[in-house]
Structures are given as structure tokens and as C-alpha cells.
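Incident log entry.

Two folding requests arrived from the same account within the same minute. Monitoring flagged them as a possible duplicate submission, but the sequences differ. Recording both here for audit purposes.

Request one:
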Amino acid sequence: MTTIDTVTHRVTKTLRGMLIAVSIIGIILGILALVWPGATLLTVAILFGSYLVAAGVFRVVIAVMADSLSTGSRWLLGILGVFVIVAGIFCLANPFQSLVVLAFVIGIGWIFDGVASIAGGATGVSRGPRWLAIVSGIVSIIAGFVVFLLPGLAIATFIMFGAILLIVVSAATLITLPFRSKSPAIA
């Protein structure tokens, strides 16, 4: 075997090992999310709150350090950063309530996306058939309102589908992984 073949062999084995490890971890995490959805939701809530705190700190730092921004923009960015930090702290103080906020954010996003899809379909700006963009927009708006009406159920459903998809994708990765390389140099 040449040096290049040896390096290729090692890289292939390492990548294969990483795929196997990530797939097994994905299956385990998916099963844990299905078995203990409450703990999964708590973890998501804590990550959401932590993200908000980090994003707020980032905005404040940019407001203080970005000399290229106008004074008004810097103040606005700094004040927004402080509000985001406070929101993150509230989310960390009451993690399950923050999940409702997260559901509302998702619902708002779907409603705005639906309105944009309908507008794109109505004006002919959308890709594909106009009717499909309009139908997609209507479904998105309905889904957004459903999330507003049933935020707890929406979040629980997201966790369930996410866990199932994590298991399916991880298992598919394991199943489709070749047992050995077809290259004679990488046996």
C-alpha cells in the first residue's frame, strides 16, 4: 500500500466510525426523547433560554464595539440586546413557560410564511404553480393558528416527530453504510 492509500484507508475508517457513533447516539437520543418527553422538553427549554441570553449578550457587545453603526442603531441594538437577555433569563427561570413562547414564535413564523406564500402565488412571483403557493400559504397559516390555540400539544408533537425522525435517519445511516470499501487499496 502506498502512503496515499494508507492515509485514505485511515480517513475512511475514521469517517465510517464517526458515522456509526453519531448514528448510535442519534438512535439513543431519539429513544430517550420518546421515553422521557418531559426531560426532553425541559432540555429544549433550557437551551432556548441559554440561546436567548447568548444572543442578547452578542447584540450588546456589537452595540458597544461597532463603530461603523450610527449612534441610534447602536442604542437600538443595545436595548434590543438587553431585552433579549431579560427574555432569556425569564425562560431559564420558568423553562416550561418558555416552550409556550417558542411555540408562539414558530406559529408567528408559519403565519408570516403563509402570507408571503399567498402573496407570491397571487402575484405570480412564486416558483412553481401559483395555486400550489396559495394552498401552501393557507396550510401554513392554519398550522400557525393551531400552534397558537394548542401550544403545548404543538411542542409535544414537535418533540415526538423529531425523536422519530432522529431514530429513522440514524437507523437509515447505519443500514446504508457499506460493510467494507469496494476499493482494493482500502480493505
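Request two (distinct sequence, not a duplicate):
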Amino acid sequence: MPHNVRVSAKRGRSSTLRSALLSAAVTGTVVAWGLLVFAAIDFGGKARGGEPGNWWFFALATLGAMACMFLAILLASRLQAEMRGQGSPSRPRRTTSGGKHGGKRAAR
């Protein structure tokens, strides 16, 4: 194969749109994570200062921040696969290679 032949396929319009949407989603979830971390710190400080109702808000903000970071990591891995040209992972196909199937009745 010659050196100057491009190996990767040309990216389509839908692939570029998908990458842009994934980038926006990653950015949005990271920003939401930062806001929830800031809120958790604020609620935790208020709760330690003597406002007991803020412990619930602290717990909810902490759980929300964890969920946002988890979602951001998932979306970032999809974005990385998209940028590499691998797309979303597909289900493996089952192949019927070798071996007997069906047990004793099928062997008759």
C-alpha cells in the first residue's frame, strides 16, 4: 500500500454531529459536577455550624455529584471511541462453529 493513501474513512455529517453532542454532554455533566461539589461543601459547612436539616442536602448533593462524574466518564469514553473512529461498541455476534448442538436427540 502506498504511503500517501489515506487509511481512515471520511467522517460523515452525522458522526461530526454525534461528536459535538457528546462533547457538549461531557462539558455539561462536568459543570454540573462542579456545581454539586460546591453545593455539597456549602451544605456540609452549614450542617456543621448547627443547621441539622442541611445534612440531607449535603447527602443529596454528594450523591448527585457522584452520579454526574460517573456519567461524565461514560460519555467521555464514548466520545473517545467516536473520535478514534470506532463508534459505539456493538454486541458480539454468535457463531456456530464446531461442536455438536442439541444433545442426544439431534445426534440421531
